[in-house]
Amino acid sequence: MSRLTLIAAVSFLALAPTAFAQIATPQSAAPQTAHGHATASTPAVAEMTQAAPQGTDEEQDPAELAATASLNQRIASRNDAAAETEAASQAAFEISNTRWREETARLATEQAQWEANKAAADAAKAQYERDKAAWEAQVAACQRSGRVCVTGAPQG
Questions:
Q1: Does residue 135 have a pLDDT over 80?
Q2: Which end of the chain has fewer CB atoms within 10 angstroms, the N or the C?
């Protein structure tokens, strides 16, 4: 049993540095450029970055240049179409928003007119009720006096 333990311990110690070396560094610990972009954090990425062709357009493959130009043209075309779509959508929104504001203003005016009409009707009703109460008091006073009372009810 002790021999097995000893072999396991030696194997662990022999493989531990290799295992710990393979642990990747977290993204937040990766070195960054002045613009905040992560730089090459592994030797393989650094090697691929250095292996990229750094020549002028004349030194590059014409097929690759044509493919890049075509891709750039499609991207520019899509960007233009998206800009046109956005502009059309913004214009449609502005038209709808203007209509909504006009309708809201019209409804606010109608509500203000309705409230004014209601206030006038309430004032007229209150005046009628006061006139009627005064007439009823006059008729009651006349009836208590024993006289013949001939008065008309308030018009309203």
A1: yes
A2: N
Q: The tokens 């002045």 sit on which residue?
A: 34
Give the Å distances, CA to CA, from 112 to 99, 107, 108, 117, 152.
Answer: 20, 9, 6, 9, 37
The encoded tokens of residue 107 equal: 């409804």
Its pTM stands at: 0.43
3-state secondary structure 84-109: HHHHHHHHHHHHHHHHHHHHHHHHHH
The residues, any chain, with a CB within 8 Å of residue 72's CB and separated by 6 or more, are: none
At residue 116, the pLDDT reads 98
How far apart, in Å, do the first and last CA atoms of the chain sit? 117
- The pLDDT of residue 42: 62
Which alpha helices (H) appear in 1-156, and where do they start and end?
2-21, 43-51, 62-145
Nearest residue to 132 (alpha-carbon basis) of 104, 150, 155, 106: 155
The C-alpha R_g of the chain, in whole angstroms, comes to: 46
Q: Which two tokens stand for residue 84?
A: 């046109």
CA distance 22 to 38: 19
Confidence of residue 52 (pLDDT cuts 50, 70, 90): low
Contact 135, 151 (CB under 8 A): yes
